[in-house]
Amino acid sequence: MIGNLRPASDAEIERLLAQPDEITRFLYGGGSVERERVTLGKAWHAIHFGLTGSRLGGDAPLNFLVTEGTPVGTVDVGYGPARVLTSEQVRQLASAMAGIDPDELSHRLEASTLDENSIYPGNWGRNGHDVGTVAETYRDMRALILRLSEAGLGLVLYVN
After folding, report:
1. Pairing state of beta strands 154-159 and 83-85?
2. CB 34 within 8 A of CB 27
3. Distance in angstroms (rounded) separating the CA atoms of residues 103 and 135
4. What is the DSSP string of 3-61?
5. Structure letter (DSSP) for residue 99
6. Cβ proximity of 1 and 159 under 8 Å
7. Where are the domains of the chain?
């Protein structure tokens, strides 16, 4: 399961919610490769845990990787439907994330704690999954969200 984030204007989000069948073309169709996106890889769940202290819950807006956002219909884009955050939701998220730098997130994560809480992909210590990579991925994700907030853009989240 690979987490992905892709910018979208509020107009694009409205169109996708009104016409959910368009989500596949938006994410994977012509020109999609050139569009900006951040691939979270398998780090998405560890980032969620670092932000919320919860395996699957947590408080909004920092729980956005697992539970926030509006599903784009029922179209399965890999592992369920994509979800969208409007520009206002992205502003709220950026405000909450502004005070959590990558070093702080890194200090919240230890391989043994991730394993104890069954954080995907699991077996962090034994399989050599690197918590440092999680912090680097968070750095890229945070930079994207802060840029989108400044630009007045929303976000499409999906797992494939």
Report:
1. antiparallel
2. no
3. 7
4. EEEEEE-HHHHHHHHH-GGGHHHHHHSTTTTTS--EEEETTHHHHHHHHHS-SS---TT
5. T
6. yes
7. 3-159
The verdict on whether omega for the bond into residue 81 sits within 30 degrees of 0, i.e. cis, is: no
Could you give phi then psi for residue 87, rounded to 5 degrees?
-60, -35
Q: What is the pLDDT of residues 28-71, one digit of tens each?
A: 987 766 778 899 999 999 999 999 999 988 999 999 999 889 99
CATH superfamily of 3-159: YfbM-like super family (3.40.1760.10)
Measured torsion, CA atoms of residues 109, 121, 68, 153, in degrees rounded to the nearest 10: 80
Q: pTM for the complete prediction?
A: 0.93
- 101-126 confidence digits (pLDDT tens): 999 998 899 888 999 999 998 888 77
